[in-house]
Write a structure and sequence with these properties.
Blueprint: E1 20-24, E2 26-28, E3 33-34, E4 37-42, E5 45-51, E6 60-61, E7 66-69, E8 71-76, E9 78-79, E10 82-83, H1 89-101, E11 104-111, H2 116-131, E12 138-141, H3 163-173, E13 177-182, H4 189-198, E14 202-205, H5 212-221, E15 225-226, H6 242-249, E16 254-257, H7 266-276, E17 281-283, E18 296-300, E19 303-308, E20 311-314, H8 327-337, H9 342-361, E21 376-379, E22 385-390, E23 393-395
Parallel strand pairs: 1-6, 2-7, 8-11, 11-12, 12-13, 13-14, 14-15, 15-16, 16-17
Antiparallel strand pairs: 1-4, 2-3, 4-5, 7-21, 9-10, 18-19, 19-20, 21-22, 22-23
Helix pairs in contact: 2-3, 3-4, 5-6, 8-9
């Protein structure tokens, strides 16, 4: 590795400085793999990149490393022992720091179902944290969900989406609510979708027992995301295809997959990638506070959760309660299981974990392109994170 300004203890720079030129064995832009590749960072932005040798000697040589766009997690409840539902500075900091060490440079804070006043409190606190730049937005997963498909949501907190409550919550968010997941078969759901979309947020279909036709009507009303496809969702039946087929067949919809090796089989993930197309799929962690932590007892919202062998379940049940995954794990999973050659797999994984979720939520383009924010992840030969750059500043895992 070349001479660096401001070395961190592990040998990675804390700040790039003006005009730092960096080389690596492979640079994944989001559309191609540059082998070898180089990129230049000025302040917080990429000002150039290319394949082969750079115009001048590199300031930093990453050697046998693969550089990919920073990961974007559009559905995550916590990590490092912290939960976004705590709506506290400490809880948010712990979650953000844990996932940042694993390559997540942009995340949306997901909330589980809560009673009306508690939901307003959580949204109000998180809105301030969005404004401070800690997270990129808020995702409301509930409370407007189907009781029979509630998964790890407190049944007592579920309710139909009333227009007055929708408006109160959106006002409390002050424009920071990026996505709202709801069940389209509930009374008032179509009006809720229209209000959510009208406020500039994304409406998502999830935790639902909706029929195929009800799901199509929700998409027509403005829903554009399928929340963790297959999980907490009416399954496919040959005479009632349900929400899964309706979401997969509509080109306006992006579908989430929790590709952690627990929530769904790899063959099913490949089927979705191949049928919907890589550009319509995002990988999400759905991680809760136990991500990056030992097995033990935790909470997801109001519910007690038991983590054993890295699998989180609602205490005393077999119901999966989010995950303990991080985005780098999902990236490796995609490369390993997508049945493509190495470079094609790297590009596909970058789209699944970075480009697509940002596009689905209307966030800034995270691809490694000239003028983009310098958000990137350095991976070794085993695709393990060795360094992360966020807005031009290095951090080490």
């Amino acid at each position: 590795m070349g001479s660096l300004r401001g070395k961190a203890s592990e040998g990675h720079p804390k700040g790039s400085g003006p005009g730092v030129l960096i080389t690596a064995d492979a640079v994944v832009t989001g559309t191609a793999v540059l082998r070898p590749g180089w990129f230049q960072v000025v302040g917080r932005r990429l000002v150039g990149l290319g394949a082969g040798s750079p115009r001048r000697p590199a300031d930093v040589s990453l050697g046998d490393a693969t550089v990919v766009p920073g990961f974007v997690d559009m559905h995550v409840h916590g990590g490092g022992g912290g939960s976004f539902s705590e709506a506290s500075a400490e809880g948010t900091r712990r979650a953000v720091e844990l996932h940042a060490r694993h390559g997540t440079t942009t995340m949306v804070a997901s909330l589980v179902s809560a009673p009306p006043e508690e939901l307003l409190r959580q949204v109000g606190v998180l809105a301030e944290q969005v404004e401070e730049g800690l997270v990129a937005g808020i995702h409301l997963e509930g409370p407007w969900l189907a009781p029979g498909r509630r998964g790890a949501h407190d049944a007592s907190a579920l309710r139909d989406p009333h227009p007055a409550e929708i408006d109160r919550v959106l006002r409390a968010g002050r424009g920071t609510i990026r996505m709202v997941t709801l069940a389209p078969e509930l009374d008032g759901a179509h009006e809720a979708i229209k209000r959510v979309v009208g406020a500039g947020s994304v409406a998502a279909v999830g935790h639902t027992d909706a029929t195929y036709q009800q799901t199509r009507a929700a998409i027509a009303a403005g829903a554009t995301v399928g929340t963790h496809l297959f999980n907490a969702m009416r399954p496919v039946h040959h005479r009632e295809p349900g929400p899964v087929v309706a979401l997969l067949e509509d080109p306006r919809v992006t579908v989430e997959l929790i590709a952690d090796g627990v929530h769904l089989d790899a063959a099913l993930a490949r089927h979705v990638w191949d049928s919907a197309g890589i550009d319509r799929v995002t990988l999400v962690t759905d991680a809760m506070a136990a991500a990056g932590m030992p097995d033990g007892e935790y909470r997801l919202g109001a519910l007690p959760v038991r983590v054993a062998d890295g699998v989180a379940t609602v205490a005393g049940t077999t119901t999966i309660a989010g995950s303990t995954a991080t985005m780098d794990e999902l990236f490796r999973y995609a490369v390993l299981h997508c049945n493509r050659d190495q470079d094609t797999a790297l590009v596909a994984a970058a789209r699944l974990t970075s480009i697509n979720p940002a596009r689905a939520l209307g966030l800034p383009e995270p691809a490694m392109t000239e003028g983009a924010s310098a958000d990137l992840v350095v991976l070794d030969a085993a695709l393990t994170v060795t360094a992360v750059m966020r807005r031009g500043t290095w951090a080490t895992p």
